[in-house]
Amino acid sequence: MATKKSSSPMAIKQLKRSDLVAQEIKRMITEKNLSPGDRLPRESELQAQFEVSKGTIREALKSLEVQGLITISTGPSGGGTIVEVPLDRTLQFMQNYLFFKEVTIDDIYAVRMMLEPELAAGAVPHLTEADFEALEHSIVCCDPTSSHEDLIMQRREDVNFHDILAAANPNPFLRFTCELINEMIRQLIVFGNRTPQTEHRRFGEENANYHRDIVEAARARDSERVRALMLQHMQDATRSVKRMKGRIQGRLILDADNLRSPRAAVTLTTRTPASTPAAKPASAHVPAAQKTAKPRATKSGTKVA
To answer: Same structural domain for residues 127 and 259?
Structure first.
């Protein structure tokens, strides 16, 4: 196989030939500056280039497909097409890592308290009118005083508000990290069945009030006020979750099939109140497989999502 020799024979010996080919294909993508939508050479061409069997090439391409880097089509003109790595695939790898870590609800909210204010402040200059409409619709849906939604759906809508802000932030790493935390909150945090409904309503009202103030400051393009309000919001939310005896349900594991497009989250998780027209977020079309499952009760508590 036409690959560069390594100064560490032991390291090479630990890798399968298909893994080496996959690494070389990734190097080729970088060197040729290929982008999503570009096609890789045909299997026969790759086989000749790397001097390996057809089975090895197919195994290497399958590995890249599992990593989310390409899609594979069959037929005479089939082969690999480069794609942008989807968020849900990245989260699947992240969940495998975190599965063996002792992550607590305090850990999650401590990081959230540091990142959410910066995320929100950074999103302010980039929010469009469609974003503001989606944010305001989310507030109506999560406010117990104005929404017909059940309490659990309202808690989910609280998180959707933050997803809309995340989608508008231009920093991809910060955006991804906050979306990951939001998904953890949806999938993992539960409240005890004995938590009074009055506490849920109080939590919802507090969140809705903060969200209104944040939107008002964002419309004024006041990034510093948005940052300060979001910090207060996160501090109060942390206290509220502890007061309501929130905790992580089981091991830290995410269901990537339940992910959805942040800008379309509002329409996927709520029913529009009769008196409030639905906002039309920027990403209107989301595959059915990405829609979220309905909230459900567990033996130990009620799941947020």
So the answer is: yes
Distance CA 78, CA 72 (A): 7
β-partners of residue 303 are: 190
Q: How far apart are CA 197 and CA 186, in angstroms?
A: 19
Using a pLDDT cut of 90, give the percent of the chain over it: 46
247 occurs within a structural domain: yes
Reading the block at residue 141, the tokens are 């849906």
Q: How far apart are CA 81 and CA 36, in angstroms?
A: 7
pLDDT in tens, 134-184: 999 999 888 777 655 566 677 778 899 999 999 999 999 999 899 988 888
Q: What is the pTM of this model?
A: 0.65
Q: Is residue 2 part of a domain?
A: no
Confidence at 75, pLDDT banded by 50, 70, 90: confident
Please give the residue range of the domain that contains residue 20.
9-82
Return the CATH number at 39: 1.10.10.10
User: How many domains does the structure of the chain reveal?
Assistant: 2
Residue pair 178/114 in contact by the 8 Å Cβ criterion:
no
- Is the same domain home to 64 and 77? yes
Is-contact 178 160, C-beta < 8 A? no
Are 138 and 100 within one domain? Answer: yes
What is the SS3 assignment for 189?
Answer: strand
Residue 10: phi, psi to the nearest 5? Answer: -65, -40
Of 45, 63, 82, which residue constitutes the final position of a domain?
Answer: 82
Q: At what angle do helices 172-188 and 87-98 cross, to 10 degrees?
A: 60
| Secondary structure of residue 215 in the 3-state scheme | helix
CB 71 within 8 A of CB 242: no
Please tell me the number of Cα atoms within 13 Å of 23 on its side-chain side. 11
- Give start and end residues of each alpha helix (H) in the chain: 9-13, 17-31, 43-50, 54-66, 87-98, 105-123, 129-142, 151-168, 172-188, 197-219, 223-243, 265-269
